[in-house]
Amino acid sequence: MNAHATDLRPALPDAIEAEQALLGALLIDNAAYWRVAGFLKPQHFSDPLHTLIYETAGTMIAEGRAVNPVTIKQYLPADQRIGEMSVLQYVARMVTEAIGSFSVYDYGRAIIEVWARRALVSLSQDIDTLSRTMPANMTPEKIIAEIADRLTQIAQEGNERAGAVKYGVILPNAVQKAASDSTDASSRIPWFLPEISEALGDMRRGNLIGLMSDSGGGKTSFSLQQCRFAAAKGFRSAFFSIEVTEEEAALQAASQQSHIPLGRLDSFTLNTKENEDIEREIWQAKDLPFYIVGFGECSLSDIRVKAEAMVKSQGLDLIIIDHAKMIALPNPKDMFAERVNALYRGLKALAKTLNIAIVILIQRNDDWKRRWQSSGAYTAFRPVMGDAYGGGSIKQSLDVWFSLYRPEPLFREMLPTMPPERVKEGELTKKQTMIQKMEESRGKAAIINHKRRRGEPGQSPQIGFDAEYTMFKSLADDMPPAFEGFLQ
Which residues pair with 204 in a beta bridge? Predict the structure, then answer.
């Protein structure tokens, strides 16, 4: 037997006939190009000449120029032969054999389907090669992450671009799904406080929700409280922690639930009642579908691999990721803004693909300090979309976006920067005014709704914050009249 027989592989699949039929139809009816231009790209063709013809024709049509065998001839290689034919004769034959443009969309679907098959074959060969001769700078985990990225790209090309469905087909299914979801409590994940649900609506599967807050503003506390609450309601929840360890996150969640100060729990200086409370939480936690996953260095690929594995094994409903700034950005050669947007787009695609809700925590930048220093207005402390990591442009990838706003620590941070000043008797200095506002905002927070696909943004309900247990609570029962409008 030939020692190299196992290296002989069948030829890659192609769609030569579909490509010829599509190109012939486009050369007859240039307007038909727009039926496939949204999803069919030159790289999807299997024949290099077909790639060139499609790319050239698309450029000419986009510029409003007529495309036919005569006008396109000058842009094609004159010396190339296809069997016994010149390129011009080959193009003319495609036109004469075309049977009209009514099937152009179907030809495009056939071409992209075969492209996906070729890509899968090529990928499987790469896996085989990498697995046999793995470079020193690679690991099995890195190979798996890279392969997962490429599989996702192939799936998105094949499904999202080519898988268009008519409005009349989608609408009955959408209405039926909405009717079914309205009576199915498992289709929507509630927030842990009614004020939050009122402003944001329940979380929905396939959605990416952005939660923005300042450093030390309570993002992690809020997230752990939400995961614990959702798990108690039967929703399988995971907290992906990149910033704090699994043990730190678990102790903080236990502190909130048991009403034991985190410092006392961390040092384990508990009294008898607190010992009983933490033992009760340990017992209850055993059966809770609440998972805490720690990461070291973390990329979008790492998150995707872990999320896919957990959805398959645990059947997750909700993932909260702490936080976006700790995730290594994709596409190192691109500009920073595009890399950040690619991160959010990737998380959105992941939520949609896995049919789960994903909450991504977003670090707020320090632009508010410059606004305060230039204007002196207390409205400068209030979060705006431009304060987000990645800027306001990330809005397009988020289904819901809100800020968790606690002005008290911000006032405390700025107090030492306030210069001394003289005022008239009976008047307050700016520093005294800020101290007064800090006291008024103590133990209070606001949910500022920046974007909500279903409903109107702009609502800002107030909630309470208990610093002793690092937990948020409702103010519906004990909110004094003076609290209303503390953000103005």
Answer: 188
Report residue 265 as tokens.
Answer: 């729990």
φ/ψ region of 470 (left if φ > 0, alpha if ψ in -120 to 50, else beta) reads left
* Average pLDDT per consecutive 10 residues, the chain (488 residues; last block may be shorter): 52 86 93 83 92 92 88 90 89 88 86 91 88 85 81 68 55 72 78 92 93 93 96 95 91 92 88 92 92 88 88 92 88 81 89 92 92 88 91 90 94 89 84 91 93 72 92 74 43
Instruction: Give CA 378 to chain center in angstroms.
Output: 32
Q: Give dist(CA 95, CA 92) in Å, integer.
A: 5
Residue partners of 191: CB distance under 8 A and separation at least 6: 197, 200, 202, 203, 226, 229
- Domain span at residue 96? 7-161
Which helix (H) or strand (E) segment is 241 a member of? strand 237-241
Together in a domain, 337 and 395: yes
- Report how many domains make up the chain: 2
Query: What is the value of pTM for the model shown?
Result: 0.66
Rounded to an integer, what distance in angstroms lies between the CA atom of residue 29 and that of residue 26? 5
Q: Identify whether residues 157 and 190 lie together within a single domain.
A: no
Distance CA 85, CA 89 (A): 6
